[in-house]
Amino acid sequence: MAPTTTTTASWTVAPEPFDSPAAAALWRAYYTEVSDRWYLLHEGHTTDPAELEREIAAETGAELAPPTGVLLLARYDGEPAGTVGVRRLMSGGNAVTGTGELKRMFVRKEMRGKGGGSVLLAAAEEAAGGLGLERLVLDTRNDLVEARAMYARHGYEEIERYNDEEYAEHWFAKRLCSGQSPV
Question: Which of 128, 148, 162, 168 has the fewest CB atoms nearer than 10 Å to its CB?
Fold first, then answer.
């Protein structure tokens, strides 16, 4: 079941093919920002351009395509401003029953502070329900403090590590059915 289009004030969120020009541009902006942020913090320089191109190309986003996932694109006053993906969580090649994973949660810098993160997160939770998911998990890093605060504000609770992502330092979960623990 495809998620419905969500509109709030000047924000519109709708499914988008992972390989559309708008999705590709936002993926590049997202990856560049988080990679540069990590390198600046840990090594004092931005990402090597060749590494950046290699890593952007390696993560196509195909796992965010139906029927096992969805990429949502947010527009602010019609302009592409952010994305979030939801996919079924896999373990050992099998889907984890009822659990999905948030990926590529991103709002362009110039659009931050306008509520886009909350709008995208609500749309992702709705899309997860449309995929038959009851729980969402995600990973993030220490330096992404704004993201961690937003997840906590929206009911995500820290959990034990659920994946082996090299740069992940925090793991969160939220049960989409009310009144239940996220773990």
Answer: 168
How do residues 135-177 score in pLDDT, each as one tens digit? 999 999 999 999 999 999 999 999 999 999 989 999 999 999 7
Distance CA 65, CA 72 (A): 10
- Token pair for residue 115? 């509520």
In one-letter notation, the amino acid at residue 153 is: R
Collapsing DSSP to helix, strand or coil, 136 comes out as: strand
CA-wise closest residue to 138 among 127, 126, 152: 152
- Pick the closest to residue 97 from 105, 89, 106 (CA basis): 89
CATH architecture of 6-175: 3-Layer(aba) Sandwich (3.40)
> What global pTM score does this model have?
0.87
Our CA dihedral for 134, 140, 146, 147, rounded to 10 degrees, sits at -20
User: What are the phi and psi torsion angles at 111 (to 5°)?
Assistant: -105, -5
What would the pLDDT profile of 39-91 be if each residue is shown by its tens digit?
A: 999 999 999 999 999 999 998 899 999 988 999 999 999 999 999 999 998 87
